[in-house]
Amino acid sequence: MKIAIQGVLGSFHHQVAQQYFGGDIEVFGFNTFEEVAKSVASGAVDVAVMAIENSIAGAILPNYDIIDRHELYVADEYYLPISHNLMALPGQQLADIKEARSHPMALLQCKNFFAKHPGIQPIDDVDTAYIAKIISEQKIKGLAAVASVKAAEFYGLEMLAEDIQTIKNNFTRFIILQKDKPQHETTPTKASLKITIKNQKGGLAKLLTVLSDNDLDLTKIQSIPVMSKPWEYSFFIDTLIADEAKFNKAMELIATNYGAVKIFGTYQSRK
Length: 271
Description:
Layout: E1 2-6, H1 12-21, E2 26-30, H2 33-41, E3 47-54, E4 58-59, H3 61-69, E5 73-81, E6 85-88, E7 99-102, H4 104-108, H5 111-116, E8 121-124, H6 128-138, E9 143-147, H7 149-155, E10 158-161, E11 171-178, E12 190-197, H8 203-213, E13 216-225, E14 233-241, H9 244-257, E15 259-267
Parallel strand pairs: 1-2, 1-3, 7-8, 7-9
Antiparallel strand pairs: 3-4, 3-11, 5-11, 6-9, 6-10, 12-14, 12-15, 13-14
């Protein structure tokens, strides 16, 4: 199976791909989430693993738009406990480190550590494991990566500080994306949606009432403006499904009375 990820081998995306799909896989790393989505949409890979939210840093909102534009489906979700670690070339000490580079979301999750170590400047970069790779290949001293234990092992770096994330009970939710609509053998318990409501008074309140009346428990709601229609908004929603018949009824009611509904996917809740 060919799997697209954002980042390089040793990244958290790589870790999820291995844990979810097993060992018999071929992983293709891309610099951006946009490239990941394109590879799935074009059929160059079978599926993609994409981070969508973190329990500390929140949602990666642009990824919802990427999924939407490339007409991809959410087939499943996977929660990975995240441990961020400061790593550098062997022989370096914490006092030797002047910069720490990583993905912005990773650095955001480690704010307290850097507040306690003002001599280390956190710098945004493209990926967690990518920085570990560069440090290893170019033998860069004075620079550390914030990445996983797997990245340290993969690139032969030494851990200077472990579990530096602010909140230790830290999870990232990943989604499994594919080009075709997935077929499920079991009744889905969660759905990811995009609902664009009409510009009317109390539109959002009415939408939420329909969802509540049909026993749909929202786990997330994010809004973005509709660029072609000023003052209209689309809502990216994740909801738990207590009863599939009620879920279908709610989607029909919303589509008929309140706006457009796009279902990115129905799947099993893995939380």
